[in-house]
From TrEMBL:
One of its GO terms (molecular function) is metal ion binding. Belongs to the Mical family. It comes from the Eukaryota. GO terms for cellular component: endosome membrane; midbody. The lineage of its organism: Eukaryota, Metazoa, Chordata, Craniata, Vertebrata. Keywords: Actin-binding, Coiled coil, Cytoplasm, FAD, Flavoprotein, LIM domain, Metal-binding, Monooxygenase, NADP, Oxidoreductase, Zinc. The keyword Cell cycle does not apply. This is Molecule interacting with CasL protein 1.
Length: 487
């Protein structure tokens, strides 16, 4: 049965949608499928049930089974909890999409805007056990069979985005790519809160919303939010991706789930004496690509000619004009070759969207964390709830692999906040509760969160071991409620 070609055109289109490997293909096959079945995704309230009703295909039913199980959770109140809310999500990174899925499950109308035209990040993320469980519960295995097979617990950023994009579309989320968010437009006349988008996809009828979720990554912070900066000693990271041809020889080479200098001094000593490369740690994952990430010492980068001139300021040090890219590629290549005992045959760089070797050098000396996770703005009697998720809220420290785990927690916590908003809980109480939960986020790790993943939901007490929803009181969040009275 599994090998038979479907004869029904909608079944063939569903297969194309499920197996699509680029953001554009996912969107195109999804539109074609909707057209074929005559279901309109704009009809978000009934879209998913109509899709299910009209697509009578065993492969689709396998997916519906998973999604239905998730959607039937009592917290979503049969997708009615936020049925009157309209949400704009900025950013189709993993955390923005994960949040969008939860908002759709709560019954809200959701629009995601993403400035990039494609999902092109090859870098591979280590996933905590609960995130794998969470993704499986959304039907991810039906959308990407290779998800965390065997003992492997990693996935490329682009594959993660593709899975979540597919789930979001099925749930009636509208996703606009190649559209940049440029700011909020305050209500005027009868019009509510809208966004300045470029290019403007709705020239005549702007999308009005009462919830704005910002998931624009580490370098984006919307107006009204402040960040704290955490500075450490200089730390220079290098990522490199090589083409994976999936040959038997490649399959033999062992992954390195993380070797740090303090645990394997001989390895780093040999690396230095044989190649002149001086590292603090290195990770190698075999995924869509052969992915390496390492922390390099500045002196060795200078000696090997990767960094041209020494500066004390990290920005100047790693500025494009101060880096010799050929030398950087050689450095990454040698480190990858050495750490896999030169067993990977034909090491050839995968390319980035610019068509150049996919090697990047970045500084993670300084990390940011938002001072607060939420706020409410009110203009002309129209309220807007704003929340941050993902790297925009707390920038992760990559060697700990906390990005997705804490990012998804923040997406759930934010969805919980929007649920309270949708249920009409007073603004200040919604904010106080959100800030109470936010206090816990930076300390979460697999050891201090609940280990019964089956009962995880957007309800914070299902995930955090000790959560006090009134740790922060209403009077402490008054500054997060910005009212502007008309003149
Ligand atoms: P992003 O993935 O940055 O997505 C933000 C999106 O918003 C982007 O697509 C961007 O184009 C879009 N955007 C920004 N501004 C706008 C705008 N104005 N309008 C429209 N769209 C906009 N995490 C792990 O969990 N495990 C790991 O092993 C791990 N390893 C890492 C290794 C390295 C070297 C690095 C740098 C990070 C690592 N991380 C890891 C962290 C992980 O990559 C991030 O936590 C994760 O990608 C954050 O997702 P996000 O959705 O918050 O942001």
């Amino acid at each position: 049965m599994a090998n038979q070609e479907p004869t029904d055109p909608s079944h063939a289109l569903f297969d194309l949608f499920v197996t699509a490997e680029s953001c554009r293909d996912v969107q195109q096959h999804f539109s074609a499928l909707c057209e074929q079945l005559q279901v309109d995704p704009k009809d978000y309230r009934v879209f998913y049930s109509k899709l299910k009703e009209r697509l009578n295909y065993w492969k689709a039913k396998d997916l519906w089974k998973e999604i239905d199980k998730r959607a039937s959770h009592k917290d979503y109140q049969q997708r009615k909890a936020c049925a009157e809310n309209k949400c704009l999500v900025l950013g189709a990174g993993p955390c923005g999409l994960r949040a969008a899925v939860e908002l759709a499950l709560l019954g809200a109308q959701v629009l995601v805007v993403e400035k990039r035209a494609s999902f092109s990040r090859n870098n591979v993320l280590h996933l905590w056990p609960y995130t794998i469980y969470d993704l499986r519960g959304l039907g991810a295995k039906k959308l990407y069979g290779r998800l965390c097979t065997g003992t492997l617990d990693h996935i490329s950023i682009r594959q993660l985005q593709l899975i979540l994009l597919k789930v979001a579309l099925v749930l009636g989320v509208e996703v606009l790519t190649a559209v940049e968010f440029q700011g909020l437009e305050e209500p005027s006349g009868d019009k509510g809160w809208t966004a300045k988008l470029h290019p403007n996809p709705h020239p005549t009828l702007a999308f009005e919303f009462d919830v704005f979720i910002s998931a624009g990554g580490g370098s984006f912070l919307p107006d009204g939010f402040k960040q704290k900066e955490l500075r450490a000693t200089l730390a220079i990271g290098i990522t490199a991706n090589f083409t994976n041809r999936h040959t038997a020889a490649e399959a033999q080479v062992a992954e390195i789930s993380g070797v740090a200098r303090i645990y394997n001094q001989k390895f780093f000593h040999d690396l230095l004496t044989q190649t002149g490369i001086d590292l603090e740690n290195i990770v190698y994952y075999k995924d869509d690509t052969h992915y390496f990430v390492m922390t390099a010492k500045k002196e060795s980068l200078l000696k090997k000619g990767v960094i041209k001139q020494d500066y004390s300021d990290a920005e100047q040090l790693l500025a494009r004009e101060n880096v010799d890219h050929d030398a950087l590629w050689r450095y990454a290549y040698e480190a990858a070759n050495f750490s896999t005992n030169r067993q990977l045959p034909e090491l050839e760089f995968a390319t980035n969207p610019a068509g150049r070797p996919d090697v990047a050098m970045f500084d993670f000396t300084c990390m940011h964390r938002a001072e607060h996770a939420s706020l409410v703005r009110e203009r002309r009697g129209k309220k807007l709830l704003m929340g941050l998720v993902g790297d925009s809220l707390v920038e992760p420290f990559w060697p700990l692999g906390t990005g997705i785990a804490r990012g998804f927690f923040a997406a759930f916590d934010t969805a919980w906040m929007v649920r309270s908003w949708g249920l009409g809980i007073p603004c200040l109480q919604v904010l106080a509760e959100r800030e109470s939960i936010y206090q816990l986020l930076s300390q979460t790790d697999p050891g201090n969160t609940k280990n019964n993943y089956t009962s995880y939901s957007i309800r914070p007490s299902t995930r955090y071991r000790h959560v006090n929803l009134s740790a922060i009181q209403v009077h402490q969040v008054q500054h997060l409620y910005h009212i502007c009275l008309p003149h």
